């Protein structure tokens, strides 16, 4: 723990030096009121993936995922609805169809399309999944080659971009040097900025990007503290990431007419829900509903005989986290309510 405290101190000094002076750049006001959105295009990872990731790479297609909605696994990394669904609901449209189902989409194509893949990052991660650049390539092909959407469609379109930590999880798993974290985070933000600019350049009118949630509070981290507290060293990395992203978005808006880039502050929204312990329906807020019976097993894991190697709580609606990295449907609903003032 001494090394962890040292890391926390070092990052605190780093952030203090960054924030002294002009401070954080904030995005104010309601950025959506002047646009009637009819198409939503989604890019990112498991926080927004509604079914693209294949069964070979994900437990999201196995029981008990989809427990609360639709009652069976459908590729969402939760027991039910996720950020994409609640965001689309707020816009007054149905959730966009996953890219992998575009050939049979029919009338569902009219709501847009999701290119997000669970486990993806701006760079390549641990599985052969499309990183964000490739996701945007898919979008460009849908526009330019397949001609699924017209320029008129894009005039009433919006993008939701989620980047929730896979680039950093991979860096950690590969034993990236501690002194390289600042450089790696900067590299990630630089690429994310290029991605945001490219999405808008393809004709999307508004581009919403999430600030990163407190990854040190995910059960995969809080488990080392018996699910009683967060890993603040990891959260300090998040602070740096979000600081750079806020600056990047502010700069993009200065360079672009009509300020088309907006922030969704997942970090603040998560912490708002965490802090409402007295009135919240969530219990043991850092403990997941579904977890493996031993460290080598995950939620949804079964042995060759079909015997479950996981446990599940009695009521997912009373837990914030579904598994070791993803919120429950009830949690996403609470987070979406905390985000409403930003919509």
Fold topology:
Layout: H1 2-19, E1 39-43, H2 83-91, E2 97-98, E3 112-114, H3 132-144, H4 151-154, E4 157-161, H5 166-173, H6 181-201, E5 206-211, H7 219-222, H8 232-255, E6 261-265, H9 266-275, E7 290-292, E8 310-312, H10 329-339
Parallel strand pairs: 1-3, 1-4, 2-3, 4-5, 5-6
Antiparallel strand pairs: 7-8
What does this structure look like?
Helices cover 36% and strands 9% of the residues. The N and C termini lie far apart (40 Å). Residues 1-30 have low confidence and may be disordered. It has 343 residues and is of the alpha/beta class. A six-stranded parallel sheet has the order 2-3-1-4-5-6. A two-stranded antiparallel ribbon has the order 7-8. The chain contains ten helices and eight strands. It has a single domain, classed as SGNH hydrolase (Rossmann fold), CATH 3.40.50.1110.
**What is the N-to-C succession of helices and strands?**
HEHEEHHEHHEHHEHEEH
| Broad shape | globular
The computed structural class is alpha/beta
Rounded to the nearest angstrom, the distance between the terminal CA atoms is 40 Å
Number of structural units classed as domains: 1
CATH topology: Rossmann fold
CA gyration radius, whole angstroms: 20 Å
The profile of the biggest β sheet is: 6 strands, parallel
- The CATH superfamily label reads SGNH hydrolase
Total strand count, please?
8
CATH class type: Alpha Beta
- Figure out the total of helices: 10
Strand content: 5-15%
Q: What CATH architecture would you give?
A: 3-Layer(aba) Sandwich
| DSSP helix fraction | 25-40%
Oligomeric category: single chain
In which order are the strands of the major sheet placed?
A: 2-3-1-4-5-6
User: Which residues form runs of ≥5 with pLDDT under 50?
Assistant: 1-30
* Mean pLDDT across all amino acids: 90
């Amino acid at each position: 723990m001494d090394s962890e405290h040292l890391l926390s101190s070092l990052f605190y000094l780093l952030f203090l030096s960054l924030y002294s002076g002009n401070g954080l750049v904030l995005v104010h006001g309601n950025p959506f009121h002047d646009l009637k959105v009819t198409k939503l295009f989604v890019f990112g990872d498991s926080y927004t993936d509604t079914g693209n990731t294949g069964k070979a790479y994900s437990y999201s297609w196995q029981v008990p995922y989809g427990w609360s909605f639709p009652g069976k696994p459908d590729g969402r990394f939760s027991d039910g609805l996720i950020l994409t669904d609640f965001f689309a609901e707020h816009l007054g449209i149905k959730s966009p169809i996953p890219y992998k189902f575009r050939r049979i989409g029919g009338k569902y194509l009219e709501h847009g399309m999701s290119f997000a893949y669970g486990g993806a990052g701006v760079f390549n991660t641990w599985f052969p999944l499309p990183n964000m650049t490739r996701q945007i390539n898919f979008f460009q092909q849908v526009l330019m080659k397949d001609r699924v959407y017209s320029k008129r469609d894009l005039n009433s379109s919006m993008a939701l971009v989620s980047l929730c930590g896979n680039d950093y999880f991979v860096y950690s798993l590969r034993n990236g040097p501690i002194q390289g974290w600042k450089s790696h985070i900067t590299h990630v933000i630089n690429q994310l900025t290029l991605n945001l600019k490219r999405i808008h350049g393809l004709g999307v009118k508004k581009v919403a990007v999430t600030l990163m949630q407190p990854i040190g509070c995910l059960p995969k981290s809080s488990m080392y503290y018996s699910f009683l507290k967060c890993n603040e060293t990891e959260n300090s990395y998040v602070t740096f990431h979000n600081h750079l992203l806020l600056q990047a978005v502010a700069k993009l808006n200065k360079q672009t007419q009509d300020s088309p880039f907006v922030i969704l502050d997942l970090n603040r929204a998560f912490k708002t829900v965490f802090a409402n312990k007295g009135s919240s329906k969530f219990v043991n807020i850092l403990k997941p509903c579904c977890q493996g019976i031993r460290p080598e097993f995950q939620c949804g894991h079964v042995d060759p005989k079909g015997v479950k190697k996981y446990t599940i709580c009695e009521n997912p609606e009373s837990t914030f986290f579904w598994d070791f990295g993803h919120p429950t449907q009830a949690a996403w609903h609470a987070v979406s309510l905390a985000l409403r003032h930003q919509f």
